[in-house]
Automatic annotation (TrEMBL):
InterPro entries: GPCR_Rhodpsn, GPCR_Rhodpsn_7TM. Gene3D superfamilies: Rhodopsin 7-helix transmembrane proteins. One of its GO terms (cellular component) is membrane. Keywords: G-protein coupled receptor, Membrane, Receptor, Sensory transduction, Transducer, Transmembrane, Transmembrane helix. This is G-protein coupled receptors family 1 profile domain-containing protein.
Length: 315
């Protein structure tokens, strides 16, 4: 049965923003790299987050939108294993790559870097990103033997305590017993959600505190103050991203589990909240990045300006 048209319309806007916004961030960053013949480590991390969000939008959110619109969406056992593997992989990678952005800024503001140091730093960032994607791939591989389209899953109630393990579109986790299912879910919550999110909060808070103290010491020095203002803007942008991520994640987990353990027809609205919050970070990430990244914002402004001029000339 189709959801309310207003709900479908709003969700379609979020999904569209997630697809076109993240694709635009990737394209602008890649085009800027081509022009400058240099890719900053921070931009590389931003591109990885945008890539993960874009793939989540294409492989997950578009299917949910189709389902909400009243179309039938179902998978075979093999299809469920494959899709659960992809969804878990992308969700886990998104969490760890987002943490990388916060940790990267936390580390780099404390050290001075030469050009040679920046090249060495970028190699380390690339290696860290590769490790995060590969480990997330290994973690998600449990979905291949332990998921199916069967709805008779006794461990279903335990699986939804983790946003990376939530059953979706008829695809559920089918562990041999409740103990193994609960163990895997709890390990997932601690390692892939609680730890990285705690580190995000700690590293970003420490970065803001460091910049505040540095600003007080160097506010009379023009160059240091200018550099500090740039770092301060970057820290605030990262803080907004982290807050958006935590809000989306927390709202999703709380809503799903509230419905799961106290579910009734009167509390179905919690699933609607969970649906929107699960896609919130993916959809609004491009807006936060562009608003806080001066180079991306300038590039996007030029693109929109050129597009508008071409449109006017054609008229």
């Amino acid at each position: 049965m189709a959801e309310h048209p207003v709900q479908v319309f709003i969700y379609a806007l979020i999904v569209s923003c997630g697809i076109f916004g993240n694709a635009l961030v990737l394209w602008i960053a890649a085009d800027s790299t081509r022009e400058n013949r240099y890719l900053a480590s921070s931009d590389l991390i931003l591109m990885n987050i945008a890539a993960a969000n874009l793939m989540i939008s294409l492989t997950r959110n578009t299917l949910l939108l189709t389902f909400d619109a009243g179309q039938s969406v179902s998978f075979s056992d093999v299809g469920c294993r494959l899709m659960m593997f992809i969804w878990t992989w992308l969700r886990s990678a998104s969490i760890w790559v987002t943490l990388s952005l916060s940790l990267y800024h936390f580390i780099t503001i404390r050290i001075s870097r030469t050009m040679l140091g920046k090249l060495s730093e970028r190699r380390k960032v690339v290696m860290a990103l590769v490790v995060e994607w590969v480990l997330s791939l290994v973690y998600a591989s449990f979905a291949l033997p332990y998921s199916s389209n069967s709805k008779n899953n006794s461990t279903n109630n335990f699986m939804v305590i983790s946003s990376t393990l939530r059953p979706l579109l008829g695809c559920v986790w089918t562990f041999p017993n409740e103990v193994s299912g609960l163990t895997y879910a709890m390990v997932s919550v601690v390692i892939h959600e609680a730890i990285p999110i705690s580190l995000m909060v700690f590293s970003n808070s420490a970065t803001l505190l460091f910049l505040y103290k540095h600003h007080r010491k160097t506010r009379d020095v023009q160059f240091s103050s200018s550099h500090g203002n740039t770092e301060w803007k970057a820290a605030k942008t990262i803080l907004y991203l982290i807050l958006l991520f935590i809000f989306s994640w927390g709202t999703h987990v709380i809503s799903v589990n509230y419905y799961n353990f106290k579910g009734s027809p009167s509390t179905r609205y919690m699933l609607i909240i969970a649906r929107f919050s699960a896609s919130g970070f993916v959809g609004f990430y491009p807006l936060v990045v562009v608003s806080g990244h001066s180079k991306l914002r300038k590039k996007m402004r030029n693109i929109l300006k050129c597009g508008w001029l071409n449109f006017v000339q054609q008229k």
